[in-house]
Automatic annotation (TrEMBL), chains A, B:
Domain AstE/AspA barrel-sandwich hybrid: 215-296
Keyword list, A-Z: Cell membrane, Cytoplasm, Hydrolase, Membrane, Metal-binding, Zinc
Residues bound to Zn(2+): H19, E22, H113
Presence of the UniProt keyword ATP-binding in the record: no
Protein's recorded name: N-acyl-aromatic-L-amino acid amidohydrolase
Alphabetized Pfam families for the sequence: AstE_AspA_cat, AstE_AspA_hybrid
Catalytic activity as recorded in UniProt: an N-acyl-aromatic L-alpha-amino acid + H2O = an aromatic L-alpha-amino acid + a carboxylate; an N-acetyl-L-cysteine-S-conjugate + H2O = an S-substituted L-cysteine + acetate
Cofactor dependency: Zn(2+)
Keyword Manganese appears in the UniProt entry: no
Localisation: Apical cell membrane; Cytoplasm
InterPro entries: AspA/AstE_fam (IPR050178), Aspartoacylase (IPR016708), AstE_AspA_cat (IPR055438), Aste_AspA_hybrid_dom (IPR007036)
Any GO MF annotation of the entry: metal ion binding
Listed Gene3D superfamilies: 2.20.25.160, Zn peptidases (3.40.630.10)
Length: 308, 308
């Protein structure tokens, strides 16, 4: 396979606290800022606490979900008196580490998230980007304590709504299970290890190493399933079934139990075989998502190296 | 041992949503209210969603922690324009299912809570009350899926600050781990089973059964340990160590690691052997509690039966 080349990397942003109650990124940003980390080898590093007001009150967001504000339309919308705090902040971040889609944007943007779902460590990304996928492959080879998975959202970059879409390359690191508002040492250390490996990879890349061709698996989002709800009040009437709870990425097949109602009835799955993820994620109750379903895909990566 | 007698039980309150983001009780109250459960055998049952405004926004509380408002001093304090919502609500609940310390108060008050700590199912109570302790012993004999533990807070009832202190007898059912804002079917079913057993016990008691003498263990609170903090900003500088995380009720001994700082240093325990609980409870970050420490005690129960 012919190798693909990318320019030297000069600027990276690492972000946390995009959701103010996802504590791994919050404490990691505070730590990196206290240690005044602004350079790793030849790469300038910006550490960004994305939503300081939400962090202050330990909530996902103050007025609207910041991590849904990074579409091109929203980033370019005029600011008025009624513009929510998070949209103003998204435009501020876009000026600071973007602008999205421009040559001034950071070369790589990593955004750290937590989930209450038992998802281990996942990279979430939009387009099929050989650069991100080579980092994934590297992390899979280096991290022995956890299975590193990849989730692909098939959305054009202009409509991509989350912070990582502002970088030339970018991904979210999504790690769980961790309750909102809580920091767990095991998860903190897992993310710290992943970030250290990413920085090692960047330095190897910049120094001219070729990363050989290979294959990776990813999960591509197919659809989302809502909780059973009371049609009048909208309140949920069933919880995720114990056989699905904590079983993210285990193939769901027709007839498998998915919900248990509060009066004791089981609801079974009745569709094609797919992989559930974000099972019982706290923040998705309001988004009407009990879990997502994905198809597994295999991607063949070309070798990559730095340009010239 | 001479038997102790208590009057017939005519009225019980079961409460949930005292903390608006602890979902087991919230969904259980909604379910019981939908099913119009108001009597079990000869016992009148009040189902109470304690903090509806906090439930609505899925937060622990709106203005102040409701479950710290039930001291006699606060319940009898005058209401002014600046009285927080939760203190007004506490006085309202006290009128409805109390008043605390009066003969009108419900015979038994059960308040359902969740914790992010790995505590299994615990009954929390104030004074040494043979009635509550016999229910504990009964639950321990009936529930096979979980170890049922008891936590005693040695506080005079007039200063007892939580909702269960409003009943003639009362206890909190504290169950975890469950993230705030999330309902897990396994935990919901565990609490439902416990509540069903309590109601069976009440009916056996009212029908004249004698509950024989016996022994139970309980954990009595000794002190609380805060996180290491930055002395200037007050921000925590370490997480619970992985060896302590999820190990509630496992004896902590001198030299055991308790914290891991965000720069990698381990802090060790340096005090008498005690039992940790509420390890890494989300809501206790703001209360400056990383974990509580308890001593184990053994209590010998007299036989009990209904009066007359």
């Amino acid at each position: 396979m012919e190798s693909v080349s990318f320019p030297l990397l000069s600027r990276v942003a690492i972000c946390g606290g995009t959701h103010g109650n996802e504590m791994t990124g919050v404490y990691m940003m505070r730590h990196l800022q206290k240690e005044k980390i602004d350079k790793i080898g030849s790469v300038a590093v910006s550490t960004v606490l994305s939503n300081p007001r939400a962090v202050e009150v330990c909530r996902r967001y103050v007025e609207t979900d910041l991590n849904r504000c990074f579409t091109e339309a929203l980033l370019n919308s005029p600011v008025t008196d009624s513009t929510p705090y998070e949209l103003r902040r998204a435009q501020e971040l876009n000026a600071q580490i973007g602008p999205k889609g421009s040559k001034e944007a950071v070369d790589l943007l990593i955004d750290i998230h937590n989930t209450t779902s038992n998802m281990g460590l996942c990279l979430i990304f939009y387009s099929i980007d050989w650069f991100t996928l080579h980092i994934l492959k590297y992390l899979q080879s280096k991290m022995t304590s956890v299975e590193v998975r990849a989730i692909q959202l098939d959305i054009p970059i202009s409509e991509a709504y989350s912070l990582e879409s502002v970088g030339k390359h970018g991904f979210a690191i999504e790690v769980g299970p961790q309750p909102n508002g809580v920091v767990r040492a095991d998860i903190y250390n897992m993310v710290k290890e992943a970030v250290d490996h990413v920085f090692s990879w960047l330095q190897e890349f910049n120094s001219g190493s070729t990363f050989e061709e290979g294959e990776v698996e990813a999960y591509t989002l197919v659809k989302s399933i809502d909780y059973p709800r009371n049609p009048v009040t909208g309140e949920i009437t069933a919880a995720i079934h114990s056989q699905l709870q904590d079983n993210d990425f285990k193939l769901l097949q027709r007839g498998d139990p998915i919900f248990l109602s509060f009066s004791g009835e089981t609801v079974k799955y009745d569709d094609e075989d797919l992989y559930p993820f974000f099972v019982n994620e706290c923040a998705y109750y309001e988004k009407k998502i009990a879990f997502h379903l994905a198809r597994k895909i295999k991607l063949t990566l070309p070798p990559i190296k730095v340009t010239g």
